[in-house]
Amino acid sequence: MFTDRQPRSFLDPVALARLAAVPLVARRPMVGSVSGRHASPHRGSSVEFAEYRKYVPGDDLRRLDWRAFGRSDRHYVKEYEADTNLRLCLVLDTSGSMNFGSGEVSKIEYARRISAALGYLASQQGDAVGITCVADGIVRTLPPRRSPAHLRLVFDVLEEARPTGPTRLPEVLHELAETIRQRAVVAIVSDLFCDPVALAGGFSHLRFRRHDVAAFHLLDPQEMAFQFQRPTRFLDLEGGGAIFADPVDITDRYHRALQAYLDQLRAITLESAVDYHRVLTDEPYEQVLARFLVGRAAGRGLR
Questions:
Q1: Are residues 73 and 139 in the same domain?
Q2: What is this structure's pTM?
Q3: Parallel, antiparallel, or unpaired for β 212-219 and 275-280?
Q4: How do residues 138-162 score in pLDDT, each as one tens digit?
Q5: Hey, how many other C-beta atoms are within 10 angstroms of the C-beta on 10?
Q6: Could you tell me if residue 303 is inside a domain?
Q7: Do 180 and 75 fall into the same domain?
Q8: 82: which residues sit within 8 A by CB, 6+ positions away?
């Protein structure tokens, strides 16, 4: 059982207890280091039968299927699915735009809650957890490891994360695709304020490396509604300057541009087979993660 004596504002024990009822599973076979609950691309020993193959000298005679021999007069070996652990690589956007929040919770605080909950759930089921903070490059990174002490370090990184500067998320995704050597669940928590075409390249690179990619796209309700009643000064939190505008003049164009961006992003994630979740930061994060976990469990089938 994980115990953390330091109080964390982004951890809710009651919500975590409810979420723990559904396991975090990978959509693709994982290559782990120990036995676990996730499918492996290799054969091994479990209760799930995989296939028959012809006997070759050196095979364990205990795995011969004598009933198949009686039917075919040939020796066949039973093979079973192997179970292994997974690596969860959290990718946290810490660029300046993540500091925005029109309500009680900013994007970065919401991202902390999602990331911490995912890390906790993975660690509780024996999986390795790591984190990479991204802004104008990689700000800080911890490789995945399996230990309560390491999870505390992940929580320390989340607590110390401060949004600042522009984002180079697509470039960092390419870098991570090359440096995460074994298959992993890569969970990206970001407002995805970058060129969708460039982002598609990063997603495709991760998928090419056989990683299971999930993206939590954080949007503030004000960004969706754009309900401003008087001339307003709009500040680019990533260093691009400010614009003074009358909402009456730009609201229609804003909504058209936003919808085009969201439609393009949806098409990109479908094409790249990314597990995409659009999230408004006024929605309880527990509900978001419950949909995420149940959807994966239903798609793969609980084992």
A1: no
A2: 0.81
A3: parallel
A4: 999 999 998 899 999 999 999 999 9
A5: 18
A6: no
A7: no
A8: 39, 40, 42, 43, 44, 45, 46
Please tell me whether residues 110 and 78 are part of one structural domain: no
Domain count for the chain: 2
Q: Which two tokens stand for residue 217?
A: 């796209």
Neighbours of 301 (CB within 10 A): 9
Dist. CA 27–CA 171, nearest whole Å: 25
Beta-strand ranges (E) seen in the chain are: 38-54, 76-84, 87-93, 128-135, 137-145, 185-190, 212-219, 232-235, 242-245, 275-280
In a domain, 8, yes or no: no
Residues 98 and 170 in one domain: yes
Does residue 78 share a domain with residue 97? no
Q: What is the pLDDT of residue 139?
A: 96
Kind plus residue range of the DSSP H or E element containing 15:
helix 13-19
Residues 95 and 73 in one domain: no
pLDDT band at 229 (very low <50, low <70, confident <90, very high): confident
| Residue type (1 letter), 175 | E
Structure tokens given for 63:
């795995």
Residue 86 is predicted with a pLDDT of 87
Torsion of CA 60, 63, 66, 72, to 10 degrees: -90
User: Quick one: which of 157, 83, 167, 160 has its CA closest to 119?
Assistant: 157
Which of 219, 203, 210, 205 shows the shortest CA–CA distance to 274?
203
Structural domain of 167? 13-27+86-298
Q: Give the CATH number, domain containing residue 140.
A: 3.40.50.410
Contact yes or no for 191/169 (Cβ under 8 A): no
Residue 240, Cβ density class (10 Å: 0-12 exposed, 13-18 middle, ≥19 buried): exposed
